[in-house]
Amino acid sequence: MTFDRKDYSNDELLRLYEGLLKPRMIEEKMLILLRQGKVSKWFSGIGQEAISVGSTLALHPDEYILPLHRNLGVFTCRQLPLDRLFAQWQGKKTGFTKGRDRSFHFGTNEHHIVGMISHLGPQLAVADGIALASVLDNEGKVTVVYSGDGGASEGDFHEGLNVAAVWQLPVIFIVENNGYGLSTPSNEQFRHGYFINKGPAYGIEAVQVDGNNVLEVYDTVRRLAEDLRQNPRPVLLEALTFRMRGHEEASGTKYVPQELFEEWGQKDPVENFERYLLEQGVLDEEAKQRYRRTIKDEIDEAWRVVFDTPEVTADTAEEVADMYRPFAAPDQAPALGAPTTEKRYVDAISDGLRQSMERYPELVLMGQDIAEYGGVFKVTDGFVQQFGKGRVRNTPLCESAIVGAGLGLSIRGKKAMVEMQFADFVTCGFNQIVNNLAKSHYRWGQNADVVVRMPTGAGSAAGPFHSQSNEAWFVHTPGLKVVYPSTPSDAKGLLAAAIEDPNPVIFFEHKLLYRSVSEPVPDEYYTVPIGKARLAREGADLSIITYGLGVHWATKLANEMQLDCDILDLRSLLPWDQDAVRATVEKTGRVIILHEDTLTGGIGGEIAAWIAEHCFTSLDAPVQRVASLDTAIPFAPALEQNFLAESRLRQCLEKLLAY
Ligand SMILES: Cc1ncc(C[n+]2csc(CCOP(=O)(O)OP(=O)(O)O)c2C)c(N)n1
After folding, report:
1. Catalytic residue among 112, 158, 466, 510
2. Alpha-carbon dihedral of residues 400, 404, 406, 408, nearest 10 degrees?
3. Beta carbon of 116 within 6 Å of any ligand 1 atom
4. Which residue has a Cα nearest atom 9 of ligand 1?
5. Ligand 1 in contact with 188 (CB < 6 A)?
6. Is the pLDDT assigned to residue 138 strictly greater than 90?
7. Is the per-residue pLDDT at 251 higher than 90?
8. Which atom of ligand 1 lies nearest, measured to the CA of 178?
9. Per-residue pLDDT for 228 more than 90?
10. Of 331, 431, 332, nearest to 126 (Cα)?
11. 469-486: per-residue pLDDT in tens?
């Protein structure tokens, strides 16, 4: 291995040396502790340290890095206190996640590090969002994110690079090509040879380095970073390296030919650099021993502290509370007698969004065709002219990357609204929502200030993939809020509330309501509180608990049948208004829960169970659920009508009244 020190001073070379030595020595200690049964398995970076160390030290300390599972050197070079880092690994409360997540699965804004979720690929889009924030604020900062060669097979890799290329984001995508993804060698993972072949296809410059040569990594990343700060654009940096240990400690390496260990053992990044520094007279034996002693003392002391720290104990209230960023929504009801304008549901949503854009300069909108075209439902019509292309962003077809970018923006203190063209397509961004947005506050205290707008629902003969009601998936996901207005006034006020709320909100908008309902909507900015239901109709004989289009079905039928009933419009599904449900059940004693979503696993089951548990003595009849058939949604109108819950509502009402 040859080193070219260029003009780097001895101090700079020694900083790299110390940077390399520390993660190596931490892992050597870990191996001893593992044999003693004092620590659990981890993902070793032995043999790959030069990549983490060279790239981290090449950046400014306030530039974000998004490491993966083998990047211990990132954390040590950013000077994380070792006792906190080890406490994190041991699941102690004094770690970075209060014992809630393991190993490197955490972020720390103080150190400008955003750690991974297990799924690997989602990191790339989060980096895009961080870089986008820096571009919007003209900060001249670079973001570095890592991928393995195996993780690069994920769709998220493609989406992350493509978005960065299209938006010219200053991200250095470092692919650590170590030849294996767990046990699978590269030739069973991809056919493109080297990753530098991929860059040009994305319109991205690609550079290859010897990932075991710390000077080469450092110099290359420094040079690239300096350039990217001035001329923002992504770069793909392929670092060739080798994983000298198993996928994780305990999984073995039988599947790796011995010759490879011998070959790469010769290229050890720490030993080679150390030898070079000794040869150059930059380091001598005494200094070498001094470095080792100092680091050893630091490591030993940190372990002593951690082993003396008691195990974490569970506090249920704290666990539940930390799922969400606390937020006391201010009371911003429209003033009585405030001027109104007759507005359709779609116009009210647009109005709420426009006023939020005016109120929050940090709010960024992203979605397919939302800029000049105004979105397929025209919610953002005219927004580009008013707010500019920077904040109203057309995206490629890449739901996952855009949701991930939303989290990245949030990490940089911005707000994001992501428009799904149709709620059905959220499946392609599902992982980012349920694993990244929903869990990041609980895991490491980082909120995801993202609203995902979801044009949803059936009734327009749009078939199985443009009609689904998928709110139940998200109601089942702690960390999210789920909102589903049924009227124009609620739609405007709830959207504003969702954007104000620092937590991730999935905001359902029924497509059929967009242009079929209208009412006077207050002109001023106002919010409708999340979590509060609304009595849409009052009566004594029974209660219909519903939301979305269900409110309109129930109202129509109640009028036709001249029912004396409560219709409770839930408006929010997570959290849902238990007080309002209790009040209506206690009042009428007869309950139908109506939803457009399919029956099994729908929200109706949850509410019915809650009523049975909490209001049993108030009931005069069994709780009824009316929902759509447990099938996919058919296209032909006759089939669709038969599918929808509305077709069975009258029969159920009659049955309940007669009970
Ligand atoms: C979506 C997903 N699928 C599978 C896994 C299990 N898994 C964890 S790491 C890994 C191999 C990753 O290989 P690579 O990206 O090359 O990184 P390396 O471990 O070699 O550093 C696998 C399959 C996972 N974490 N996430």
Report:
1. 466
2. -160
3. no
4. 182
5. no
6. yes
7. no
8. 20
9. yes
10. 431
11. 999 999 999 999 999 999
Question: In this structure, what token pair is assigned to residue 293?
Answer: 């002693």
How far apart are the C-alpha atoms of 305 and 427, rounded to whole Å? 45
pLDDT for position 23: 98
Residue 243: CB within 6 Å of ligand 1?
yes
pLDDT (0 to 100) of residue 325: 98
DSSP secondary structure of 153-186: GSHHHHHHHHHHHHHT--EEEEEEE-SEETTEEG
Ligand 1 within 6 A of 179 CB?
A: no
What is residue 363's three-state secondary structure? strand
Query: Could you tell me the distance, in angstroms and rounded to a whole number, from the CA of residue 181 to the centre of ligand 1?
Result: 6
Phi, psi torsion values for 312, nearest 5 degrees: -70, 145
Q: Is 613 exposed, middle or buried (0-12, 13-18, 19+ CB in 10 A)?
A: exposed
Instruction: For residue range 425-446, list pLDDT tens digits in order.
Output: 999 999 999 999 999 999 999 9
- Best probe residue, ligand 1, of 119, 247, 264, 430 (max atoms within 8 Å of C-beta): 247
Q: State the DSSP string of 553-607.
A: HHHHHHHHHT--EEEEE--EEES--HHHHHHHHHHHS-EEEEEEEESTTSHHHHH
Which amino acid makes up residue 110?
E
Distance 58 CA to ligand 1 centre (A): 26
46 lines ligand 1 (CB under 6 A): no
Q: Report whether 366 contacts 419 (CB < 8 A).
A: yes
Ligand 1 atom closest to residue 151's alpha carbon, by position in its atom list: 15
Cβ 246 under 6 angstroms from ligand 1: no
Listed in sequence order, the residues at least 6 apart from 394 whose beta carbon sits closer than 8 Å to its beta carbon are 367, 368, 369, 370, 371, 372, 373
SS3 582: helix
CA atoms of 575 and 320, how far apart (whole Å): 13
Ligand 1 atom closest to Cα of 247?
19
DSSP single-letter state for residue 594: E
pLDDT band at 40 (very low <50, low <70, confident <90, very high): confident
Closest CA to 109 of 342, 428, 447: 447
Whether 179 and 186 have beta carbons less than 8 Å apart is answered as yes
Determine the length of the chain. 659
Neighbours of 337 (CB within 10 A): 7
Expressed in angstroms and rounded, the spacing between residue 174 Cα and the centre of ligand 1 is 15
Q: Locate the ligand 1 atom nearest the alpha carbon of residue 118 and give its number.
A: 25
User: Percentage of the chain surpassing pLDDT 70?
Assistant: 100
Query: Helix 285-308 to helix 82-89 angle, to the nearest 10 degrees?
Result: 50
**What percentage of the chain reaches a pLDDT higher than 90?**
99
Residue 155 Cβ inside 6 Å of ligand 1? The answer reads: no
Q: Is 454 helix (H, G, I), strand (E, B) or coil?
A: strand
Nearest by Cα to 543 from 488, 510, 580, 490: 580
Phi (first) and psi of residue 88, to 5 degrees: -60, -45
Q: Which one-letter DSSP state was computed for residue 293?
A: H
How far does the centroid of ligand 1 lie from the alpha carbon of residue 183, in Å? 10
Count CB atoms within 10 A of the CB of residue 227: 15
Mean pLDDT of 78-94: 98
Tokens 């983490």 sit on residue: 52
Q: What is the largest CA-CA distance in the chain?
A: 96
Nearest one of 37, 36, 43, 83 to 67, comparing CA atoms: 43
Catalytic residue at 69? Answer: no
pLDDT exceeds cutoff 90 at 249: no
Q: Tell me which residue has tokens 């003969």.
A: 461
Cis ω before 575 (30° cut-off from 0)? yes
